[in-house]
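Bench notes, bay 3.
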Amino acid sequence: MSKYELTNPLFRQIFLFLSVGVVCYFISIILLMFLVEVANIDVNLANAISSVIVIFICYLLNAKFVFKGGRYSQKKEILAFFVVSFFGFLLNVLLMFLMTEYLAIWYVISKTVVTISIAVFNFVFRKRFVFLQ
């Protein structure tokens, strides 16, 4: 990594955000597949359940590794994070529903497309409204 070392703060932050996102994506997919295939829960309900769980995991990982606190008190930071996450959650649920119910796309592919789409939204809004960096 000599040419692209993680010394540029924005590049480092994006790299860490994507790393956390990949971890959260795999947790989300495994949980989603478990709920659908093993627990026999409807795919859209399973998506909502897995998304809520992963939002909490994502907060902990983002707060620890990606963004520095300091813009708000910890209570306000948590509230702001979850407000942004709520809008991402709504987009997630809506897009998953449209893709699985109306476009008949397999739920794992749908979740992958939705996750990539929501990742940009989450990074921009979390950086702008939640965390200091």
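Next record in the batch:
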Amino acid sequence: MLSMEETEVIENDGADTSLKWVMREALRGVTLDLGPGVSGASRARTGESSISGLKVVGESISPAFHLQLEESTGCRERDVKLLQEIVTQCMDRGIALTLARYLEKEEKYLPPPSIRIVVTVEQTEEELEKAATTISKVAQTVLL
């Protein structure tokens, strides 16, 4: 559920924030009711997560966010392989994704493996919805 502050940011912060919101909410499994433009996003209705096994993480002001495994397999290598398989299958379906890369030996606090997603103003609502749907279907296949 969106707070009043989040709704105001979406309505007043321009296309980039609105498109990021559309993608984030689509990945979270929100049923979008956009009406006659992205500013109608405040009418969204939340639903159950559409990506079983993955969670959306990141700051709302960033154009990038990450998809992480909800539960690690206990082995970083296996987690990376699962996420890489999602990336590969999405690429085969025309959705460009990448694994987040870290300097594993140099990082003091190594973040969990994740898929990095960047939303730009060049992407349409339809493209974002297609990407979210594809990611969800592929993740369901790979993780179940």
